[in-house]
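re: that chain from earlier
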Amino acid sequence: MSHPGPGWGSQPSSIRVLLLASTALVFAGGAFAQAVPSSAPPEESRDVVVVVCSQIVGAQPTEASPVTVIGREKIDAIAAASGDDLFRSIPQLGDVSFGAGGVANSVGGTNAARGDTASINLRALGTGNTLVLMNGRRMVNHPGTQAENLVPVVTVNTNAIPASGVGRVEVLLDGASAIYGADAVAGVVNTVLKSDFEGLTTDLTYGGEDGVEATELSASIEFGVNSDDDRTNLSIFASYFGRDPTWASERPFTANSDLRSLLPASWAGNANASAGFNNTTITSAWGIFDQYNDPTPPTAIRQGSTALTNAAGQFHVQPNTLAGCLTQLPGGVCIDDTSTRDQELRYNGNDATTVTNGVDRVNLFGFFNHEFDGGLELFAETGVYLADSVGYREVAPMLGAVPIVIPASNYYNPFGPVGSPNRLPNLDIPAAGLALALGSRTGTAAHRPIDAGPRRTEVENLFSRALLGLRGDAWEWNWESAVL
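^ sequence. v structure.
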């Protein structure tokens, strides 16, 4: 079709263009042009004044705020499977703080709970300070929030942008809050989709990683057809992306949260230098116990002359193959008289954590354009993004402030009443036995029920967009209006 798509710059003409973007209820944007007197200077020396509310009309490097354009050739070279992949490859973009993977997630970060989400942080000036447009019109922010420098921020989900249908990306090289508002302090990113595509293109990619069971599959199709002597165009872009979860335990450098084995020998031998690299936790499957009704003053529980607990009446259980066993319990475990746990008993959180969530994502966008006689054009677009994300985090510990009480009458209580089959012999405790608390009475987390399995987080994201509008040229005036 002969008319440029949304966001494209107009051809040089003998008019001065003033784009006024105003919104009345659901109407988005209008553009007007004023005729220039016959005594105007030559066309090539004339400035074009552009005032934009929610559109980057064109990339003109001679403007006060020039725009960098990433064209289709560069986009093809990036071979992005998602909007996140595409924008991470643009030099002007900073770190992606919203995301389903990354270092934060490998130790149980909160990003997994947001699902298939990725953010834009232009020039690393902070998420939420970049205005994100699609075809020159604002995109809706993802409902999830995140605190950055103690300030809650929101962002557009870049995975909702169909990477296979992107024609070009325009990045405003300067802040534009004076024109666009506070959400454009860092600048503006405009993604222009291929609205006048003609032909058929398909792409299929499948891959995996050595040593990791997870695989990825991406498939896309682009279809476009013209009719009515190229006055009518219908373009459709569809893509699917599927990725299995990647577990931290599958890679040797993330399999264990105790990273001391990866340190150089000079560090590993220094307890102070290596202490910060042991990220295992004492809250494990091997619980600590306390007397539920502490005597005054607290005293140790003794079996004959052997103290089975510390002075506060606390102890923990452990395998009877470890040093420190004071008395044997059924099932191959024993009692040790401390409220702490040895390194062998600490919990490795990376054992049941995904570094990258599993994702199933579908992007579907369609465009329809028709040129009427007299310079009038009807344009429409519609799109749907649907994603399902699944991630796993380490098993949650029990609340230390709410201990579980094991009454003296419990069959397995080793400090139960006289006559209980599991009461230890020769104890210096009352004949009625002692109730125990699973956990310290001071609030120390006592137990992690690993037999319950890791925490599973599944999030469904849905984004839809529909637009219908008209544009035209009449009496040296350009105008455009749309319902979004």
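The chain has a mean pLDDT of 80.
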